[in-house]
Design brief:
- The protein is α+β, with helices and mostly antiparallel strands.
- The chain has two domains: about 160 residues, Ribosome-recycling factor (Topoisomerase I, Chain A, domain 4, Orthogonal Bundle), CATH 1.10.132.20; about 80 residues, 2-Layer Sandwich (Gyrase A, domain 2), CATH 3.30.1360.40.
- The strands form two sheets. A four-stranded antiparallel β-sheet has the order 3-4-6-5. Strands 1-2 form a two-stranded antiparallel ribbon.
- Strand 3 and strand 4 form a beta hairpin.
- Helix 2 packs parallel to helix 6 and helix 5 packs antiparallel against helix 6.
């Protein structure tokens, strides 16, 4: 869904009447465009897809890359997430099980020919959840600082242009009002999406932590925010897995 989302004009107004305000609104929009996928990365289950990355084991006196002989898929059933591992040669099964155990995954072998392992991905523990929430706050703070810097730079350029009589004072005032309006829009977007991600991470444990959050809660029901995914969906996971599989199956030229 996010791939089809056009931040410019949908979340962030692009002011075209003035070159200073237009440039600033495009730059602010770029910061929001970069912010949204980073929200998806927090608490992502993609980490489990990469468990075999760089892992090797000895097979018939030869060092083999495990990912050449084992494949990981992610399944989402309701609110539960599962990891499914296909092992193509039995010689690597012991090392595969060791890697899965190191990741604190409890796996069950569901078939022997081919070898298939399946286990539920556990919910993050308190420590992991705290790390995720801290990362979310850091990301939001960094994004707010970025748009503040764009606003400050744009207003500084406006003042300089007005001093040098490149722009009329009235036009400069209108441009400044537009830049401030776009900055406020972007500030709201960052804070509302941070709140949406907090709700997703905490689930039933979520509690409003400030008056600001209380004021932002109704914003979550607005269509423009409903449309934005801040947590991976089953559809997005399937699409990424299908794309990765298709890429590996492409014949070499």
């Amino acid at each position: 869904m996010n791939e089809e989302l056009d931040v410019e004009g949908h979340l962030i107004e692009i002011i075209e009447e003035d070159s200073y305000a237009e440039a600033a609104s495009h730059r602010i929009s770029d910061k929001i465009t970069a912010y949204i996928p980073q929200l998806l990365d927090i608490g992502s289950i993609k980490q489990f897809k990469n468990l075999f990355y760089g892992e090797r084991t000895k097979v018939d006196e030869t060092i083999r890359v495990i990912s050449d002989f084992a494949q990981i898929e992610i399944e989402i059933v309701g609110e539960t997430k599962w990891i499914v591992v296909d092992v193509y040669i039995p010689e690597i099964l012991e090392r595969v099980n060791e890697i899965l155990a190191e990741a604190e995954l409890e796996m069950r072998q569901t078939s022997e020919d081919p070898i298939k392992l399946r286990g539920q991905i556990p919910a993050p523990n308190d420590t992991e959840l705290t790390v995720m929430l801290d990362g979310l706050d850091t990301l939001a703070s960094r994004s707010l600082s970025a748009i503040n810097a764009v606003k400050g730079d744009a207003l500084s350029r406006l003042r300089s242009a007005m001093d040098k009589e490149f722009i009329e004072p009235l036009d400069a005032k209108e441009a400044g009002i537009g830049i401030t309006r776009v900055h406020l829009e972007a500030t709201e977007v960052i804070k509302v999406l941070r709140l949406k991600k907090r709700v997703d991470l905490l689930g039933r444990r979520f509690q409003i932590s400030s008056d600001e959050e209380k004021g932002l809660m109704p914003k979550l029901e607005e269509e423009k925010y409903i449309e934005i995914e801040v947590t991976e969906s089953l559809e997005s996971v399937k699409e990424e897995q299908a794309a990765a599989k298709a890429e590996t199956e492409e014949p070499e030229e």
